[in-house]
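Could you join me in thinking about how sequence relates to backbone shape in a protein? Label the sequence line and the structure token line clearly, so we can match residues to local backbone shapes. Once you have written the record down, we can walk along the chain together.
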Amino acid sequence: MSRITAVLGPTNTGKTHYAIERMLAHRTGVIGLPLRLLAREVYDRIVKARGPSVVALVTGEERIVPPRAQYWVATTEAMPEVVADFVAVDEIQLCADPQRGHVFTDRLLRARGLHETLLLGSDTMRPAISALVDKIQFMRRERFSTLSWAGSKKISRMPSRSAIVGFSVDDVYAIAELLRRQKGGAAVVMGALSPRTRNAQVEMYQSGEVDHLVATDAIGMGLNLDIRHVAFSSTVKFDGRRMRPLFPHEMGQIAGRAGRHTEPGTFGVTGEASPLDEGLIGAIENHRFAPINRLIWRNPRLEFGTMDRLVQSLEAAPDSEWLTRGREADDLAALKTLREMPEIIDRVTGAPDVRLLWEVCRIPDFRSISPAEHTSLLLRIFTFLQEGAIPSDWLTRSIERIDRTEGDIDALSKRLAFIRTWTYVAQRSGWVEDVTYWREATRTVEDRLSDALHAALTQRFVDRRTSVLMRRLKQKETLVAEVNDKGEVSVEGEFAGRLEGFRFRADATQNADEAKMLNRASYEALRPEFHLRADRFYNAPDTELDFTEQGGLMWGDAAVGKLVKGSEPLKPTVQAFVDEEAGPEIAEKVTRRLQHFIDRKVATQFEPLLAMQKDEALTGLARGFAFRLVENLGLIRREEVAGEVKELDQDARGLLRKHGVRFGQFTIFMPALLKPAPTRLRLVLSGLWDGLDEFPESPPPGLVTIPNIKDVPARVYTLSGYRPAGDRAIRIDMVERLADMLRNQDTRGGFEANADMLSITGMTLEQFANLMEGLGYSAEKGEREKTKAEPAVAPAQPAEVDHEHPVTEEESVLAAETRAKWEAEQAEKKKAEAEAAAAAGESTADAEAAAEEAAPEMEVFYTFRWAPKPRGPRQKQGGGRRQGGARQEAGQRAEGDGGRPRHGKKQDGKGGKPGKGKNRGKDDRGDKAKNYSARPPRGEKPIDPDNPFAAALAGLVKKD
């Protein structure tokens, strides 16, 4: 048979410690505690005694449950319904609390252990427990120390190890600020703080860093602190509904925190609080209070058939004179509000829906914005849960808005209240898509905000003197240095500076003496941190490292080194940024890791170039030209190597093309190296090699043209992957595509730009004319009557010629004639209408307007011709490229990989393309056939896939 014992008495009697001892005497046990903070403290004590593998922690916002859990520590609301040998409920007098009382009453009536049950609390509960619990035994525990009245004291005269109690956030902050000015600082403890923040503040007080504590009535339950005096700054509080005087037993509970174990304690008042009357003082000193004769109750047997039946069961009246219904709880109020919403009425159709809705309504209103805001959030969560689970992307956005550690104390406190909602939601099984991930994620955000709030509270309410650090240094004590995730360094909790990578930046706000002392302390304490950070950096993946466009080397947001000119353009070296105090071992490790990173980066981005450099099959002129390409990082303007290109035979070119080299009309380049990543690295490497003080930055990716700035050297544009032409520079691969199009035009007789040319450049006709002039063409502007074409949808990509079904010249002429005839008829019709209007007596202005409207629409066009600039003496010596390298030049043009554009020739009075019709095989500049050399037939040699003109020529041969 289970034994039920009520352990009653004043505070400071060790009731919780007794319950822990009794629970550990059994094989299994459950203990319910009033605060999440106290639950964590008890959990840590049991883990220390039994190990983490058998101890579980369950609260509304935290859940740690090992597979072999034997002992369960929980908040009273979250006590699991497990069968255990032992069950204990602490602070059982909260059965009379207007807000939480029904939960404690339910545990009083129903929570039982198989062998033993303990109810811990105040003597005021004895009559109620006797009436409601059968066969119960009572045990009174006396206070270990005495508690006495100390009267009224000013805050400025408050003794050390004192706690001053306020009942509003404003009061707490005002008192803490006053203590900072007069006493050096104070710790702050409030119920609205997260357990992590409260623990940090309590630890600051317990360690003696501050001698005063400012708190709300949250210290009245379970917090075992080294407090010698408790002072009430007020004797009234807001209980959620109204301002009311503190009950005597509430004051006794708070005042009882003074005196630790056998040390005596005192209590009193301060500020505007009036002295207490003698009767109340005597009651607190002797812990004699009126018994509690009404417990708050709510029906535990709920009906989930419909929402109305659920509300009725929640509002059922108790059947005992000791029990009474309390004020309407937040969850019931939310249920009533949601019940009236059309969205909920349509969605809730059965008992499972009602049960789910009730679970959602039980989410606490941590945010406390307004009932409407809370209800709206519950509606959204319920809608998601009916469809399966809360979507991860929606939850991510909600948390990202909260996950910010900047701001003042109020902003951080508000975010902490918000994240507690999502921490609670993540603890519910099946509510989120990845329970393990979201539990960890919400806990991490809460911890981060808690730490930020603790830091903000400390910064605002604590004036820490560096004399403490000086004293410890003189005594040669080990200093504790910490580095948070932002790199902020604190020595013994005092902000000393920031660790940026492997360099320590001291706090500039300190005076010279303080800075010297802090730096000395920081470097001494940071020595192990440097080693840990160096190991982490050495093992970090390359994805965590990067280089800047000015040659800096970054590890995340921290600068850890820079690039230095090496023996070759593709072999830069590194210089690590490491403080001398860190030691040569750290510097050598960081340098080695940075060199590995940049070597791999170069090998990855310039793989085709390095492969060509190592190819032993390249010999003679081909190898020399490959060296030039490597030296220029894969891009060379053709005019700079015209002579060398002319000397390369087709076999040498073929070997180079195998490595991706393209012989363009304007640039010799590797298309693979035009991508944004190689371009960005190429500009850095070239800047290093050229010894520039400031490196040019790569253009934004995806732009076909960029402005041509006169002060920027042409080499910079080439390294960036662009060719300057006129007012703009065009991307190298696009200008070569344009050159391929121009080979099919009559560049000597003149041609006009077509839609494909404008499409690949993304320019207007006027801009294109400027570009063509920059490429060596003349642009003659003209105006003519506009020929209206049928509307058509512009292709997304440059139009391609339909080689299988081309439009014949006769069809094209017929279509143009038909169009012109129709437009002439329309113009005559409009003109006749205008004349008729004038004859009918219309105004002269209207007639003129009609006539003007009938006038034909004009358009601007450009005629382009090849007009290269003079090339100097080389052209005068036998015609330059026409004579000395006739065969080779002809071969170049046939392959489409360089040379001047072809000039179309009129045939039979019509414009034609070179290499077609009767004159095929003859020079396009005369009728005399040209001897190309005794080479194998073209069909015996495979067509170069990288040569678009050669491929097109092969198609024409096959068609013929």
Remarks:
- The longest helix spans residues 809-839.
- The first strand starts at residue 3 and ends at 8.
- The two ends are 107 Å apart (CA to CA).
- The chain is about 40% helix and 15% strand.
